[in-house]
Amino acid sequence: MLILQLLIVLLALYVGSRYGSIALGLLSGIGLMILVFIFGLKPGTPPTEVIYIIIAAVTCAGVLQASGGMDFLIQKAEYFLRKHPQRITFFAPLCTFFLTILVGTGHVMYTLMPIIADISLKKGIRPERPCAISSIASQIGITCSPIAAAIVAFVAITNEKTGLGITIPQVLLVTIPACTTGIIVASIYSYRRGLDLDKDPEFQKRLQDPEIHDYMFGKEETTLNKQLPKSAKYSVLVFLFAVSLIVFFAAFPKFLPSWGEPAKPLSMALLIQIVMLTTGATMILFCKAEPKKVVSGSVWQAGMVAVVAIYGIAWLADTFFLGCKTEVMGALKEIVSEYPWAIAIVLFAVSVLINTQGGVVLAVMPLAYDIGIPFVVLLGVLPTIYGYFFIPNYPSDIATVNFDRSGTTKIGKYLLNHSFMVPGIISTIVSTIIAYMLAHLLYA
């Protein structure tokens, strides 16, 4: 019966991933209904707190985009990349990485990726080299962002299960240097990957077609000629102040308001929601952000898709694990009692299936603490919650393939032999090793 229930969960996730977009969350609802009405499992708890955080953060990022602040950041990144085109394989992924850290969502890369592909192509650099690792880096940044739902959920679950009082900066002190190192090592691999364009027979064949040649070289992707109002710069300053405020209160929670006896301070989840909503409102009032542009922007729409996905996936996973907690804990305990780091394989495998880092944290971390895995181990393997590059069906990877007009960034004939596989594996393994060492060094 347990195996049959697991198959229902996996089937719902597989079919949902094939349809993409909000289908992943909606089809999880079918799996949830089967588990509840046919197998009689008690429904789990919908991840409402994480959803509220995502809505607040994505809405604020959407207002930043509507006010021109996102274009301002992209222009600065493009100016930097065009100033150092020969090092684009190293600098481009660091740009997407830090943009994600700042904004809290990897979907900010959609505006920068065509520019990365254009710069590398015009400089005769194989676009696959910077493009693939830049897409990977944009998603890795989620585990390093103080306003990302995955980090907030991990801290909340850790404190609920252990009472350690861990803060977001303590987590970022491990994830940021670890993931930065992983990206740099993957960039070193990418620097010489594949054939140079002048030696690539497939690319040279495409050059012979005048229409394809014009498609590749006849258009320049740039944001530098776009005139932005002064309010765009002001909106970035407002957003930076908001993120700094969140980091400050996360590091010094004693300054937060508190209520009751004994005094209980405002939770980080509520703090982020309050600050993000206030910041979005400030940009609408003083930075000329039009509400209609917010809901039509790519950042807000992609974020709302993530909300639906996490809503369905996390609820389905919580219902399944709640119904078979005893069996799953018994099976995992035997493995992790001797090899605690093996939970990294579980996190990675779940991420491959559900395509959301926040969903992985919600689905696996409570169970991991219940079976006795220490905080330092779970913090050390946190980079493995990003594994959805393995099957190239995530929007950022698909978009990157389409943005690379040279055709060098691609999904292979056998699906898994795609451009993102090796840099993704390298960055994940290196990031996890460094994070594991840092976590034990700092907090053991």
Describe this structure in words.
- This protein has 444 residues and is mainly alpha-helical.
- It is 70% helix and 1% strand.
- The chain has helices at 2-19, 23-38, 48-66, 69-83, 88-103, 109-122, 128-140, 149-162, 168-190, 201-207, 210-217, 230-251, 268-286, 291-296, 298-323, 325-336, 343-354, 357-370, 375-380, 395-403, 421-443; strands at residues 258-259, 264-265.
- The protein has a two-stranded antiparallel sheet.
- β1 and β2 (264-265) form a beta hairpin.
- α6 (109-122) packs antiparallel against α7 (128-140), α7 packs antiparallel against α9 and α8 packs parallel to α18.
- 50% of the residues are buried.
- First-last Cα distance: 40 Å
Give the SSE order as H and E letters. Answer: HHHHHHHHHHHHEEHHHHHHHHH
Number of strands: 2
- Cα-atom Rg, whole angstroms? 22 Å
Q: Going across the major beta sheet, what is the strand order?
A: 1-2
Percent range for β-strand residues:
under 5%
Mean pLDDT: 90
Q: Structural class, judged by helices and strands? A: mainly alpha
Q: Helical region count?
A: 21
Instruction: Enumerate the spans where pLDDT stays under 50 for 5 or more consecutive residues.
Output: none
Global outline: globular
* Largest sheet features: 2 strands, antiparallel
How much helix, percentage-wise, in residues? over 70%
